[in-house]
Design goal:
Elements (H helix, E strand, L loop, with lengths): L9 H5 L18 H8 L5 H10 L12 H24 L1
The protein binds iron/sulfur cluster.
Iron/sulfur cluster (SF4) binds next to helix 2 and helix 3.
Length: about 90
């Protein structure tokens, strides 16, 4: 897969979920999360999508190949890394 870097919200139109090839409701259906994540794995804007979901605190649906529960874990880990960096910067 080749990642595509696009600015603003242009990336959303490049997502496989917007291609018309897949049922868009699948990405907001807890019973089809696994299927949606498999589509995301092939999506050229996956990283950008995940970044958006984390930054905007998207609570529902599969974004960037991650379920809401997986994004909570990712966000917690990211915060711990950031806090560790801040602490090290302050204490040398
Ligand atoms: S990563 Fe998934 S949810 Fe995000 S744009 Fe691509 S297909 Fe859609």
């Amino acid at each position: 897969m080749v990642a595509i870097m696009v600015s603003g919200r242009e990336w959303m139109r490049r997502g496989l979920c917007a291609s018309g090839a897949y049922d868009p409701d699948m990405f907001f259906d807890a019973l089809r999360e696994e299927l949606a994540c498999r589509v995301c794995d092939k999506c050229p804007v996956r990283d950008r999508c995940l970044q958006h979901a984390v930054e905007e605190h998207e609570s529902y649906g599969v974004w960037g190949g991650k379920t809401p529960a997986e994004r909570v874990v990712l966000t917690r880990r990211w915060r711990m890394v950031q806090e560790g960096r801040t602490r090290r910067a302050h204490h040398g």
